[in-house]
Specification:
- By secondary structure, the chain is α/β, with parallel strands linked by helices.
- It folds into three domains: about 180 residues, no CATH class; about 140 residues; about 270 residues, Rossmann fold (3-Layer(aba) Sandwich).
- It contains 27 helices and 16 strands.
- A hairpin with a 5-residue loop joins strand 1 and strand 2.
- Helix 6 packs antiparallel against helix 7 and helix 13 packs antiparallel against helix 14.
- The chain is globular, with a radius of gyration of 27 Å.
- Keywords: TPR repeat.
- It holds the Pfam family CHAT.
- InterPro entries: CHAT_dom (IPR024983), EF_Hand_1_Ca_BS (IPR018247), TPR-like_helical_dom_sf (IPR011990), TPR_rpt (IPR019734).
Length: about 650
Amino acid sequence: QKSLGNLEAAEKHLMGALAGRTKVFGKRHADTLRSMNDMGELFVVQEKLEEALKMFQETLKLEEEVLGENHPYTFETLNNLADLLKIMGKTEEAYKLFMTGFERRNAFLDRVLWVAGDNTRQSYISLHRPEQNALIRMLLSLDDERTARDLFEVSLRRKGILLKITSETQQVLMMSGSPELQAITEDLTQTRKTLAGLTLSGPTDENRKEFPKIIFDLEEKVNMLQLKLGEQSVRFRQSTKQVTVDEVVEGMGENAMVDFMSFRGEDDSLRMLAVVVNAGEFSFVEYEDLELISAIVMELREIVQDEGAEDEDIKSVAYDLWEILWQPLTESLGETVSIFISPDSLLNVLPFDVLTDSDDSYLLENFDLRIISSARDLALDPLLAAKGDLMIIAGPDYDSDKILKTPAAREVTHKRSRSVARGARMGSGLRGLNFDPLPGAEKEGEVIKEVSDTKDRNTTIFSQRAAEEKLLREMSAPPEVLHIATHGFFLKEDEKLKKRLQGLSRGSSSVPPPADNPLLRAGLAFAGLNANASMLGEIDTDNDGVLTAMEVLSLDLAGTQLVVLSACETGLGEIHEGEGVYGLRRSFQEAGVKNVINSFWEVSDAGTQLLMTKFYDKFLAGMPAREAMREARLEMLDDVQWSAPFYWSAFVMVGRNT
């Protein structure tokens, strides 16, 4: 009735419902409190703001007492009250309430996401995204000295939270296989489930007085159990660490940082902001038209990938993007040339170095840009560097029939129907994958081995039939450097894949993850994939030729200094608002890798080999990976034959790269 504009009738109806529920259930019942919140919402529509204020304040007080601070009803009333205070011009009160809600929601998500399935996690984040958008809009409306720092806090606590939680659960699962740790992991999982259940249900009449202490004790137990696991796994300790803004600033050193965040405006339009942190000072830039920025990003990516594009045409588009995206940041960045960048939305697939300034120079020429997934990366102590060799996997034989000859595979082949329906099933998704040989990749591996030999570095190389997926599962210790030159892929969501994909999470969960998980649709191809494709998901093997991004999370790469994914489009994946790219790059980082080099598009064999040769020649001589990659790119830029961004900007390094 409210939506029909018949406000008087709506008020009469809601008043009646409230009176009835109060009489039957009493004022401290959830249904009564729900009616009180509804009444407050109607008062807002009627512009009876003072009455709405009193109603929301009373409701919130009762809900906190009866249902608890983290109950969904309590959150809804708190958000309604915060919005109302903002409307009434009570800015300071609104600000405090918004920030209270933010802290409570962080605690809520930490409790609930950990025990939820992948689909449920994504649903929770999507459900609460409007709440986060409202907080961001509130902070932007303040526009005072608190705004930029608080926006940075929002990004720090929320950006990339889904993959962080997924990584933690994978690590606990891995540790549960250890007899010494099994009891701790089971206790942690059960305690978290109990905590999540109580958070969602709230107190009962029986435990109302003890409820805060029950929650506190459970959280203390979770912390204690996590500390015990952290003693056994530095990677797990890093993943569960609560990072502060001050720790990030300290971790930046003398570098600056630009943290991009997408959000939605009051009209639901996609927008973006950037927080700049420089010399301990916080500032921000708001971009009103994210659609325009995204359109130019796509235009730039398209023209840069055209090997025959004219330099002036590339620079024209690159300047347009510099003008709208980068120029507004220049005042805050000042003279600082070493800058960390944490992208969001489509900026995750933008080669920032290609942007062209008003002096017709690429950013590569004047800035040392360092891409990171999240600001929290800068506050984490580096994992102890792996002491393993340089490991190269290059040019697999995708037609290798080694697995087909195993008894398990022969049994599957014998049992399966030869029907037309089977042939149709093979035509799409992972079973439809078929890769051509990559002679250039094998040559690339050999060239890197030659460079490594001149530096007296221990190097192992696996090619053709030996370039198997199981190599990464059976390592005795993490390699210092891992170079993989093979095909990468990312499949778009397809309903037909659902059952099929559920069988491809080997080693990642006893319960098959949801089939629309993008971490199951991104992967690398290894020896035997073409031969095994028709049986993917049916043969229980760790060596079927497909390594998905989800499976990467279960690899032990803690302390590996660098992974190079020299494959087509390994930097791509599914872009989630506020979550970055769900794909191989992020998974390798979560598996403990310090820096990842991946590609945005396919480059010629000769171009890739030249860049990698220049890079490894410097890196293996002792130059930091970040510096070595930048120097290699600059050398190509200075060479007329290789000066097109098509060659030198396809590969990007992501990580702390210090």
